Amino acid sequence: MIEFIEILLMLLILFDLALLGVSRLKTCITISSLQGMLLGIFTVLAHTQGLTLRIALIAAAAFVLKGFLFPRLLGRSIREASVSLELEPYIGYIPSVIAGLALLGASLWLGAKLPLSSAIGIPLVVPAALMTFFTGLFLIIARKNALTQCLGYIIVENGIYIIGVASVVEIPMLVELGILLDASVAVLVMGVAIYHINREFDHIETDRLDTLKG
Amino acid sequence: MSLLLLSLAVIIAGGCAALFAWNKPGLAGCIGAGGTVLGCALGIIPALAVLLQGTTRSLRCAWSMPCGSFIIELDALSAFFLLPVFMLSALAAVYGGRYLLKYKEIKRLGFVWFCYAVLVASMALVCVAANAVLFLLAWEAMALSSFFLVAFENEKSTVRRASWIYMVATHLGTACLLPMFLLFGSRAGSLDFDRFAGCLPPQLTGICFVLALIGFGTKAGIIPFHVWLPEAHPAAPSHVSALMSGIMIKTGIYGIIRTLTFLGTPPLWWGWLVLAAGIVSGVLGVVYALAQHDLKGLLAYHSVENIGIIMMGLGVGMIGWSAGMPAVAILGMAGGLFHVLNHALFKGLLFLGAGAVYQASHTREIDLLGGLIRKMPVTACCFLIGAIAISGLPPLNGFISEFLIYLASLRGATAMDADVAIPLFLAVGSLALIGGLAAACFAKAFGIVFLGEPRSQEAAHAGEAKPLMLVPMLVLAAACIAVGFLGMVAVPALSGAVSDILGFNAAPELKAAAGCLRSITIVSVALLLLIALAAWLRRVLLSGRRVESAVTWDCGYSAPTARMQYSASSFAQPITALFRSVLRTSEHAPAVQEYFPEAGSFETHTPDACFEKAYRPLFEGLRRLCGRCVVLQHGNIHLYVLYIVITLVGLLAWQMR
Description:
By secondary structure, chain A is mostly helical. Chain A has 7 helices and no strands. In chain A, 75% of the residues lie in helices and 0% in strands. The termini of chain A are far apart. In chain B, a hairpin with an 8-residue loop joins β1 (57-61) and β2.
């Protein structure tokens, strides 16, 4: 079972690197949706011994929300705001991947040092979570497109979710559902905001919105 | 004690009720002023009782504030400060009720009355709070409510500027108080005042004292922390100026004295420091006042001067205290404290008078006024009484307190060694100089404003103030006279407050001083009788003759005009010229080009040197520094997120280290 989980985590990390190297928005969304589905499966696999209805429900919610709902919402935003399908990076794709590798190294180092690592006995969990978290932040910082920001937050949330599921076994369900709900509301709000920003300014380039500053 | 709480509750309730009557300005004024007057009348009873009986009352309530506890303690010192708080607040409220009606069309008076009530209640609470958290909360409420009152006419840019300067100054002062209370609290293990006494090791007491002097001194307006005063006082409505100048700045003095009671017997240099601050504030305050053209600005600088006199009293007292001369300590402290009360009376009176002049003539520019004694005789008479009192001339109340300080300084100076005697001699000299300059300044203020001929249309058409504005002025004028003549009764009543500060019984020494004051009263009464006799003689001598009245300034000119009179700056010029190096008055006088020039102009302007030379460069520098930081504010979301990430990673790395 542990091998499965490790393969899964490897896949997650590879998806992270792929997110950094991909230039097309739609591919990014697809990858994030795949990552979301993996998270759902991961939730079940990590708790095979004590699989309760609660955990199954959370896994299903993650699977559906992250795998299908968020990508669909983002896709709809793309259509409605006629977003350009390029990611328009501040940092190029190859340097991004190299930075991603550096982040992976940092995550492995941090994961070894953080006292969380022993939670479910798989040493790769915390580095994978940190890597996903950093990838999300990197996307937010290094891409101009407002939709990528949204995507970045979803990826960040994925990272937090991994840590939540893996290391703290008994999180109250309310908190987990709260996080999921937060993320979905955030995506909705972001979608609406992007639509309005686009209608107001004819673009959603966040670097051109700095005229609004005080 | 319950009466005191009830009075605070009534004041606040009146303010809140006025807030709800915002669309009926007249009603708001009635409720706000009425609530304040009623509350003050209730509050003055326990204050007087404690002051006369000398007992201390305290009250502790449960309070869910972290580190705070609701402790109020009414000892003789607090009661002494409460007396002017309640007295002047009530009178200023009555005055303000009429004064503010002029603004009823354009302003929301409900909010003004709410702020006024909060200001009065918070000043009273500052004087009785016995817990640092409660004290600071009241202190802050006082600062904020007075800020809103200063910003009353916020459509004027000068008023906005003044209120911001006040806001910044008062918070910089509070920034010094926080570490002071934290030092006390960390050593005492509690923020209650009764645990503070003697809790600090000797090396920390000096730091605490200097912090208190800066923090409370900013509120009190000692030079060089006075810059907000000449800005804020002219900007505020007059009854608020009276309240702020008469009492609010005294809470700074109260804070300094209260801190002294925690710190025990002071070392000698504290006394020197306070005395030096007093001398500098007193002399420079009155010199700057001489150079002012704005009536309320002049009064504001006189507040600096009087705070200087109070500080001199405290400084003399502290020198006597640390040198082991109880007589000097008692008389100095009593003089300083008594001047607190007296300044509240006459400065309140003068600001109310200035407000009446402002409402009648729509200008505060002294050079545009003149001849008002015929239009507003009652106001003029009250202003004159205030002017005599503030100049420290007998037989009015200003003289009594200054006399106590003289007495203390001379007593100490003739009896002790050089490092004590020299500062005390300096105090005597400075006090005399201040008194002379103040008399000159008020000769100018009263002479130019009330005597002579009107210098502008507005002044010519001025009329007497409304009765509701006159009554408070008359009461204050009567109080000035009464305190002046009853000094021998009033001074022994200070013994409780002075004993609270010094920790030993001050009653015998003050009784002895009252003996001196009795002979002064006798001389004063004789003086009054002499004046009455002279007036009677004049009447008798003139009874058979025809008395004519003619133009004041008719020195043989065929066509005299009001412009031939002395102006305020020309009247003060001989003295301001003496202090040229301090004042740095800038003169603008275009050179006359033709042989028969049609028009000429002359202007003098005296900016505050402290503000121009110290604070402006400092704050300009700060602004430039902050301007550099705008680089960080891109408006670029990516970079903002990057900042957050860097911070998080930094924190993580710091923790992993």
